[in-house]
Amino acid sequence: LSIYSSTPPEIGTFICLALVNGATMKKIRIQSGRGRTMPATLQVLSISPSGDGKSTVFEVPCDAFRKVQRRRRDRAKEQKQAGAARISELEDQIKGVTRDDPDYGALISELRQLESESSAAIPTLLTSDPSSEALEEILYENNGCIIVASAEPRETLEAAAGSHRNGTANIKPYLCGFSGESWQTLRLSRQGREVPNPSVTAIFLSQPSTMERLQGMRDFVERGFLARFIIVFPPPSPVIPPSPWERQGMPGDLVDYWE
Description:
This protein has helices at residues 2-5, 9-23, 54-95, 104-119, 132-141, 154-160, 172-179, 208-215, 218-222, 252-258; strands at residues 29-33, 36-39, 43-47, 126-127, 145-150, 183-184, 194-195, 199-206, 230-232. 47% of the residues lie in helices and 14% in strands. Helix 5 (132-141) links the parallel strand 4 and strand 5. The chain has ten helices and nine strands. Strands 4-5-8-3-9 form a five-stranded parallel sheet, sandwiched between helices. The protein has a two-stranded antiparallel ribbon with strand order 1-2. By secondary structure, it is of the alpha/beta class.
């Protein structure tokens, strides 16, 4: 991946580690103290200047996850369509029987099961640039697991720092998503959400100026937001060998002939 994108190997290494970590979906836990465990969650912040190719090394592995996500959603949509057709059949059958009919209970049971499955949210593996409120909803619908990955995370981080909330930071999804601490949200405009044992894998590729801004945000420092991240500072001028599958140049004799 590093050779393909001509980028320092540190960037691709931690992106891939974090993606694999997020794919485990809370199946791996580590002991954090006597009688305490927490999800083995990675949160990565890679700092490098603009133009270093980090977008390329970011997109290749993330695109693989997006393809899996699209296949899962397409499969879920097909299942929901088939379920809707079966629901319609069951409703017609139920209309033709009475409560005393021996098949009535089985028909009702199947109907309720299909209705429950049809209302279930389609799982999300990876998302980019969600607000903290949207992240809460995704975690609630996705069994408490998500990968947040962005090569341009400035707006996401500023929103978490409270740029849209009168300066009040809302970083609890990331804090609890690292520690696995369950929490319940309270909202005046909508129903609160309870998210048990969350796991939020975060992959942010940022520029040095953004890191400077983060270090100046009091809540990010004092509440341990930055302390939870693996901060990656790749070398500024790595020596990357040429790609083994790079196209060969035009033969010299052909160039001479053309000229």
